[in-house]
Structures are given as C-alpha cells and as structure tokens.
Amino acid sequence: MSQTQHVFIIGSKSIGQYGGYETFVDKLTEQHAGDSALQYHVACKANGEGCMDEARLQGVRVTGKNKDGEVTEFIYHGARAFKIKVPNIGPAVAIYYDVAAVRACLRYCRAHQIPHPIFYILTCRIGPFIAGLKRQIAALGGALYLNPDGHEWMRSKWSPAVRRYWKYSEKAMVRQADCVVCDSRNIEKYIQREYAAMQPRTCFIAYGADLDVATAEGADEKYARWLSEHDLEAGEYYLVVGRFVPENNFATMIREYMASRTTRPLALVTNLNGKFSDELEQQLGFSKDGRIRFVGTVYDAALLRRIRENARGYLHGHEVGGTNPSLLEALSCTRVNLLLDVGFNREVGLDAALYWTKEPGSLAALIQRADELSDDECEAMGQQARDRIRQAYSWPYIAVQYRELWLEQENAVR
C-alpha cells in the first residue's frame, strides 16, 4: 500500500493573501484537497508585514493555539498550516522566516517520523544557510525542491550589495536542490545555461490562472462605483496592473501612451511610489495629460476581475521574472493584451496577444492598432487568449503536473 507523500511548502507569507506565491499555495492545496496520496504542510508568517490572517479564509479548522490564545496551527483545504513568529529586524526578516520555517519542518518530521519528505522552497533567499539545512533534510531521507522565481537579482529596487547577495544565494540554492521547478521555460533555460557546471535537474511547471470564476455578490455595483469615482466608462479604457517599479516599464508605457492618438484613458492600478512618481513626472509631465489616470490599488479580487474584463485592452510591461500572475489573469479575461516583447511574456501569450518593444513609437503604434480593432476582432482575440490559458495555465492542469512530480519522489524511494 502506497504511503502518503508529505510536502512542506516554505517561502509563502500566507495562504490566499497578498501575492503570487500566496495564491499559488491556495490553489494548489485546493486542487489536491481530499487526495489521500498527498499531505501538505504550509509555513505562514505569524506577525509582521504580510502575515497570515486565517479569519479571511473560508473553511478553516483551528488545531493549535498558544498560551495567549493566538492561533498557531490550522487546517485549510486539508493542508496543515503552521505559523512562524518573526522578529522585527527589517529586510532580513524574510531570510530569518525561511530558515526558521525549514527548521520547524525538520523538527516536525523527526517528531512524527515522516518518511522521505519533500521540502519545497519558494524563491532563493537563504543560500548561505542551505547547505547545512540540506544535510538535515537528506538525513531524513528527504528531498529539497526549489522554485527560483524570476531574476530577483536584477530588480532595480535592490542596492548593488543586495543584488550580489541574491545572485550568490541563487547559485548556492541551485547547487543544493534535488530539483529546480521553474514556472517559465525561459527561467529553466537560464538555470541550465547559467549553472551548467552543476548539471541541475530542472522541470517546467507553470503558474496557473482561473478561467471560470463565479460572479461575487455585489461585484457589479462595486465596479459601477469604481467607474464613477475615476470618470471611466466600461469598454473605453486601457489598463495597467502591477507594482510601481522601474522594471515594469511604467516610464515607457506612459510615454508611449502620451504619444499615441487614442482618446481613451489609461487606468493604472498600482501602489503609487512618491519618489518614482516624482521622477516620472519630471521626466514626462504626465499629470498634464488627462488620459493618464492613477487609480490606486484594488485588493478586491472580484472587482479587479470586472475591471479587467471590461477594459479595452491591457498593457503589460513586466520584463524581470518568470510566468507573471498578472499576465495570466489578463489573458484569462481581457480581450486585447499588449505585451512587452520579452521571452517571459511571449512564451505565455504566443499568438493570443500583441507585442511591443521599448523602441520609441512601438507601443504608441500598437495602441493605435488596438484602437482600430472591431468588436468581432477584439472578441476573437479574447477567445484565443482564454483558450491559451485553458490549454496550458489552468489550475487543474498545473495541479496534475505537481501531483506527478510529488509522487515521482514517493515512488523513487519505495
């Protein structure tokens, strides 16, 4: 009789909150809920920025509290989630959190005699500590799997010293990993090329997206209010959704939009950064163009989907990272998608999107082309995009691939 494969997920701050990894854990555990062959254990932050608030989840069963009555463990989608307390030590808290989570998982495996566990670490933060942790994992008969995310060492928000740390940490973690799971074929190619001397074992399993989403109660009313607040009309605005950072190419998108002849406004759903905003204003003077609308962040998933569904088109300027969740969400529900032409984006969109470069005039011309598309042409593009998601990026499809990967480990040690 086959044993249950235990999978310990480390690196997500929470489940179903805040970001891509958090959504990934939510969807993966949901897809595998009730599967007796798999048992997930998910580390969550107990305090600090992005910490776990289980009250926001449906169907939680609390299984542990501390002496102060605070929840320390709970069951969600059949997964065991446990909280890690972190100190207030600034940016280094992320490294502390991952190391503490791995150690907690090691203790649990020893205490419960877990056979051949899989430790799945999300992103490459703890390279300086990974060799010692890997020895302890191996002593349990376990395996270390790594999701390297994207090119974190290239992000402009980091200082040169931090970028060097990220690059060193990535190399150390790839060296120790039994398998590097890449959510982008371009990231997989990079890992194989950059670390060829290590001969890393890699596999490609993409991030997922939802296609058939039930209409949340009140979503239409919220959307109507949002349109009114920002003086927008359904179907008559272009959209940008993403973090307000230079590597997402806000400067190029705004400059090109200002240079275009479209009369439709551009709604930018983002967390406006004062310093970066001031730099762009000085460079572009975008506040003088009434079409450029910074509309703030939107954390209501149902409202954001309505905003996407009713956009004339979506502009995507991300160029650092693997498969971007925001791009998948756009392809799942926005009809016309205008993507920066880099490998990460083209491998996802293929022929279901339009592509632009950072050359002056490229995006402006593409916006004009999108403006001239008929309703039938827009609908055809939207259907092609949805088909692309259904075929390669749906959560059920992704979950099957992960199940095969996890059980491959279980079968290897029988």
Features:
414 residues, alpha/beta, Rossmann fold, nine-stranded mixed beta sheet, six-stranded parallel beta sheet, 14 helices, 15 strands, 17% strand, globular
Summarize, please:
The protein is of the alpha/beta class and 414 residues long.
How would you explain this protein's 3D organization?
With 414 residues, this protein is α/β, with parallel strands linked by helices. The protein is 42% helix and 17% strand. The chain has helices at residues 20-31, 93-112, 127-139, 160-176, 185-194, 219-229, 250-259, 274-284, 301-309, 325-333, 343-349, 362-371, 375-392, 395-412; strands at residues 5-10, 38-45, 61-65, 71-76, 79-84, 118-122, 143-147, 179-182, 202-204, 238-241, 266-269, 292-294, 313-316, 337-340, 354-356. β13 (313-316), α10 and β14 form a beta-alpha-beta unit. The mean pLDDT is 92.
**CATH homologous superfamily designation of the largest domain:** Glycogen Phosphorylase B
| Structural class by secondary-structure content | alpha/beta
Q: Please state the average pLDDT score.
A: 92
Q: Can you tell me the CATH architecture of the largest domain?
A: 3-Layer(aba) Sandwich
Our count of helices gives 14
